[in-house]
């Protein structure tokens, strides 16, 4: 039998400098494994090596959103079906051992057996651009919060002549006052030193605040362009919309249904019944940032959306506690959000199962 007549499944264990690739046939036999550099030339050689063993039905890969992101884009662009593979659990690791070839073969076997079926994010469109910009915005917000906390801590321990002048000021007034200050005196003394430190922190806060505003100006139009119907929904703002878009990715059709999207967002109900009690509880899994976005939308609607307020009143009268009401609302919002994501049509291939 020639290579052209053989159907094979690939597997890749991704790393920073090298990717370990492996190939198995349609009944799970290990054919070959080899390492390739994480460079454009290495990606081309990896693809040629895979095809030299036969028709590549699919390829399983760990880390499609990290070390393997560029390789996944390259293989997808060249007609290879890439399947996202979860890291093997500890029991499997203890049984089979741990090495790069072992992990690469495990990735291929997971695809062949059907355990791995996830479609990775394509990371090649406007949503990926939004995600990248959000990374810098998020870190700037974190640094700004740290800065204002440092300012307040220094004021608490500052000499009274500094502390008394700043008492009672709002955050904005405090930052403006400190940024305009002109400390004088000997830096060897605590009073001058704390005034100097507070001025520097205040100016840092202003710089970070401007960086966040610039990021908002860049991200906002991209979110509207990517999903205009999504941002038009009640309670959905630019921040919650870009988080939900980022969680779904550039190819939200990888999520087979609105139930799958709810699971991704940690909004799928989990049975919690026992004896005569018949109820569901909140799901603590999924993408917690997406779940937080749903939570924010629910809180806004509970306060401003008449339809939601009537629902809350009705369910409260039925004896449902607020925690369970929010769970139901999150599930409803997830269903509504899914219908307004920018969907596209994708085709899938059926893989042979190991015998």
Word description of this protein:
By secondary structure, the protein is α/β, with parallel strands linked by helices. Helix content is 55%, strand content 10%. The protein is built from 14 helices and seven strands. The strands form two sheets. Strands 3-2-1-4-5 form a five-stranded mixed sheet. A two-stranded antiparallel ribbon has the order 6-7. Strand 6 (270-271) and strand 7 (280-281) form a beta hairpin. The relative contact order is 0.09. Residues 344-355 have low confidence and may be disordered.
What structural class is derived from the secondary structure elements?
alpha/beta
* Main β-sheet description: 5 strands, mixed
Low-confidence stretches: 344-355
**Percent in helix:** 55-70%
String of helices and strands: EEEHEHEHHHHHHHHHEEHHH
**Approximately what portion of the residues adopt beta-strand conformation?**
5-15%
Shape: globular
Layout of helices and strands:
Blueprint: E1 7-13, E2 18-25, E3 30-37, H1 40-51, E4 55-61, H2 69-77, E5 82-84, H3 90-96, H4 100-113, H5 126-157, H6 160-166, H7 171-180, H8 190-226, H9 228-231, H10 238-248, H11 258-264, E6 270-271, E7 280-281, H12 288-304, H13 306-317, H14 322-339
Parallel strand pairs: 1-4, 4-5
Antiparallel strand pairs: 1-2, 2-3, 6-7
